[in-house]
């Protein structure tokens, strides 16, 4: 069996922070010349980013204070909205809000520039059905950007793809 590898850098939204990893796409060239690509499963949020470009992302002002937070939101990316609240720049506007820290293209491929330092508002925003529950705010954000709502099946498929990929790698 001959293996071919192609590499591309992707950003993964993981609970312990944004990491850049080199994705290895393995092409299994079997004797009958059939090529079977095995793509690494991608978290739906990495292909979305709609919530970061739909709502005002505000949080308690102290989350951006170095002395008060273990992972402070960078102040240069925030603006004051009330005495107690700060918001991510770019999100406190009526038309076409978009967070200053959002990188990439909504609905295609996105990442958060300050993933490890994002606010509690970002951390607490949940994708629909990721934890088994319907999240209308996720649906609304996606709809604003012409994206279909996530379904329960999308997460099952992601899980199945991950397991399949794991099995495939074990066989190598
Ligand atoms: S800080 Fe990051 S996760 Fe939060 S709204 Fe901005 S881009 Fe999205
Ligand atoms: S709108 Fe929903 S699917 Fe899209 S990035 Fe936000 S939480 Fe994830």
Notes on the protein architecture:
This protein has 172 residues and is of the alpha+beta class. The protein is built from three helices and eight strands, in the order ββββββββααα. It has helices spanning 120-124, 136-144, 152-171, and strands spanning 2-14, 17-29, 35-38, 58-60, 78-80, 85-88, 102-105, 109-112. A hairpin with a 4-residue loop joins strand 5 (78-80) and strand 6 (85-88). The longest helix has 20 residues, at 152-171. Residues 1-37 have low confidence and may be disordered. It binds iron/sulfur cluster (2 copies). One iron/sulfur cluster (SF4) is lined by residues 44-45, 48-51, 125, 127, 138, 141-142, 150. One iron/sulfur cluster binds next to helix 2.
Number of helices: 3
Helical/strand content category:
alpha+beta
The largest sheet has its strands arranged as: 1-2-3
Query: How much strand?
Result: 25-35%
Shape: globular
Helix content: 10-25%
Ligands in the structure? iron/sulfur cluster
Structure keywords:
172 residues, alpha+beta, 2 domains, three-stranded antiparallel beta sheet, 3 helices, 8 strands, globular, disordered N terminus, binds iron/sulfur cluster
In short:
The chain has three helices and eight strands.
Topology:
Layout: E1 2-14, E2 17-29, E3 35-38, E4 58-60, E5 78-80, E6 85-88, E7 102-105, E8 109-112, H1 120-124, H2 136-144, H3 152-171
Antiparallel strand pairs: 1-2, 2-3, 4-6, 5-6, 7-8
This protein binds iron/sulfur cluster (SF4) (2 copies).
């Amino acid at each position: 069996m001959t293996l071919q590898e192609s590499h591309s850098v992707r950003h993964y939204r993981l609970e312990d922070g944004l990491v850049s990893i080199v994705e290895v796409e393995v092409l299994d060239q079997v004797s009958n010349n059939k090529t079977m690509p095995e793509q690494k499963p991608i978290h739906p949020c990495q292909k979305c980013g709609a919530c970061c470009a739909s709502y005002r992302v505000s949080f308690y002002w102290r989350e951006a204070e170095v002395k008060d937070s273990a992972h402070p939101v960078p102040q240069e990316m925030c603006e004051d909205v009330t005495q107690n609240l700060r918001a991510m720049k770019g999100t406190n506007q009526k038309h076409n809000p978009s967070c200053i820290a959002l990188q990439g293209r909504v609905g295609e491929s996105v990442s958060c520039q300050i993933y490890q330092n994002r606010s509690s508002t970002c951390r607490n925003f949940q994708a629909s059905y990721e934890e088994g529950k319907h999240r209308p705010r996720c649906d609304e954000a996606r709809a604003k950007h012409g994206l279909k709502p996530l379904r329960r099946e999308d997460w099952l498929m992601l899980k199945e793809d991950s397991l399949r990929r794991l099995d495939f790698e074990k066989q190598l």
